[in-house]
């Protein structure tokens, strides 16, 4: 499996390119060292002492998601499917990010929980808490492996090292600054990485469009290719969704991707929520995902467009796509090889390394928090000193990185890693979102229903995956992931309702701050927010973002 992913593709980097990469790594490690000096307890290590301003956490929020899968996976999907890939941003991200900021962050931040599983503990008790914590930790190791695999691919392409060597070296680099500086090191590096990524990828979009004759030239070339003209229109996205029917495709995209997968990821994934929880006030926490939504809606122009350009400009991509045998994960690397001179190539490589490190660091920092607080402190070793749990967090950071080195080789078996990632989201995020949203708005839902709904939803998603793998159903593209997510959501809701009807609910006095109707409105306010200006109001910012993303859907639909 590993050897199949090693490639003769090489990037012709020169001395200046290596110097730029070395300078970037020096900054990364320096940030980790400086962040370490600010750590005095476990809250500093896991949640940055809840002391960061909104613009820092907002950029970190989006940069944590701008990882290997976002860069390489989305460019690969764009090379394969074209403009429908925009749905992962405009339908499958921004609306859920705005919902998180407006509706859900007050519950997370106001309750002072340290993780999403801890919220589940307070709402449903230890059953749902343990199921959520274990499944989340397992998912983060798998997703960190994706980021690590792609990071190793860059080292393999650049230096020609075997993938297994590159995986170890790349993992150790991330381990150094996360172990040293905890979440603060991850967040400050993510802010740096955001700007490096934009500076690295923007030239690919601009230069690529010039080479294909501008936007009209890209339209002509894509329309003449194997995918046809429909790859230049975001809707209905039949090939991406895996349906022949445009109606079913639209339903699958809106419900499966836009609602279940998207809301399940952005509103319950502690990797993202952790950044907002590190903010210095309630208002800042609410603004964090909303601020992140603005760059998120424009990221496709430096990720998706280069993938589409690569598919019609790079000879290997053109030949492979015509013959049906192409590794789409190489789309961006081919374009970098053919377009960028020395110096710019070094910056682009640093940008890719930055994206992969940001993604992996986000996964590892979320893993160590959930494992240390929710699993180890909750069920293994209780009532120990704060220093003890800080040391546990640092140790499991090492163990999680080693585990990610192993799961990186699972990712090596996929020609398009977005297929793999969406499958994982249907297993872990879709049922969690169903349980979470039902429990937040339905006070009657019982603790037993919480964990049984989670387990049933996950089993349903796995069942759809197995049926598709064994040929019982045939859904090409990412249709199986969309159907699996929908099945997980519906089964979770139905099972939770049935179990609630025959089990005992928690007393209402224990649900204040956890259920919307039982939470006093004043608990959503923070005295520190009185100093905020009118343009810093979360509702206003969310409204502007929503208008913009609707406009983008109309223009490119």
Explain what the structure shows.
By secondary structure, the chain is an all-alpha fold. It has a domain at 416-520. The chain has 24 helices and no strands. It has helices at 2-5, 15-36, 42-47, 54-65, 68-81, 87-90, 94-110, 116-124, 126-159, 163-212, 214-223, 238-241, 246-268, 270-277, 282-298, 300-313, 315-323, 331-339, 344-380, 386-411, 417-441, 447-469, 479-500, 538-556. Helix 14 (270-277) crosses helix 15 and helix 19 (344-380) crosses helix 20. The chain is globular, with a radius of gyration of 22 Å. It starts with a helix and ends with a helix. The model is unreliable at 1-5 and 43-49 (pLDDT under 50).
The total beta strand count reads 0
Can you give the mean pLDDT? 77
**Low-pLDDT stretches:** 1-5, 43-49
Oligomer: single chain
Percent range for helical residues? Answer: over 70%
Order of helices and strands: HHHHHHHHHHHHHHHHHHHHHHHH
Ends distance: 38 Å
β-strand amount: under 5%
Helical/strand content category: mainly alpha
Number of helices: 24
Largest sheet: none
Summarize, please.
75% of the residues lie in helices and 0% in strands.
Key features of this structure:
557 residues, mainly alpha, 24 helices, 0% strand, Na/solute_symporter, membrane, transmembrane
Describe the protein's topology.
Blueprint: H1 2-5, H2 15-36, H3 42-47, H4 54-65, H5 68-81, H6 87-90, H7 94-110, H8 116-124, H9 126-159, H10 163-212, H11 214-223, H12 238-241, H13 246-268, H14 270-277, H15 282-298, H16 300-313, H17 315-323, H18 331-339, H19 344-380, H20 386-411, H21 417-441, H22 447-469, H23 479-500, H24 538-556
Helix pairs in contact: 2-10, 2-19, 4-10, 4-14, 4-15, 5-16, 5-19, 7-13, 7-15, 7-24, 8-9, 9-10, 9-19, 9-20, 9-21, 9-22, 10-11, 10-16, 10-19, 10-20, 13-21, 13-23, 14-15, 14-19, 15-24, 16-17, 16-18, 19-20, 21-22, 21-23, 22-23
